[in-house]
Design goal:
This protein has 7 helices and 17 strands. It is of the alpha+beta class and 224 residues long.
Length: 224
Amino acid sequence: MIVHFTREFEHLCSILSSRSFRLSYCGEYFGDKTGKVISRAAHPMVSFSDYSDVELLTKVVTYGGYGVALTKNWALNQGLSPVNYVEKNSPAAQGLVSLLKARQRKIIPSTLRLPIIQLKCFTKHVYGFNSYFNESNFDFKAENEWRFVPSRKQIGGNRISENFSTYDKNRDKYNKRLEKYPLRFSYSDVAFVYVKTEPERQRILTLAHLPECKVKLKRWKEKT
């Protein structure tokens, strides 16, 4: 199963009542082996983690104490994919760096500009800077991330890569453009819902009409 985590119970309720995840642009960087940033952009996505219910017992989760777990079949049918984690000194990382530089210098065929960005959207350093926690050697691989990154057609022609500094000046404007294009699911796609308290559990059972066995109290630790 794959799990989408959130810090707010009301956000969890919104996801379940709408049976959808809102897309938002996420800032991502990719650097060369010296640490120089080659590409810093924002891409529209929804993020999940690939954990089993048993694995969550031993995990420290980065982004929240609430979660919605969906089946892998749903993920595959929606076009989600695991993130490719690459070590910055590896040939794979150096290859992507070369492609990004060639794209920036416009020395590749125009038909390859989008495929390079599509590849970059699903590639991440194993270790790197996490801006949320201001941590310079964060272990991204431990998150076992899967992503939904839409095609331009799926988001009404909006771009799947925006210059980060441009996006950062008006985040609300860019994310509002995505509101009409959520990532949808049905209750039959839900493997589990995780909450913190028994009253919250009862509210979710009433809201989503899920079997009792599918709504659980969370058992992981939250990163602080």
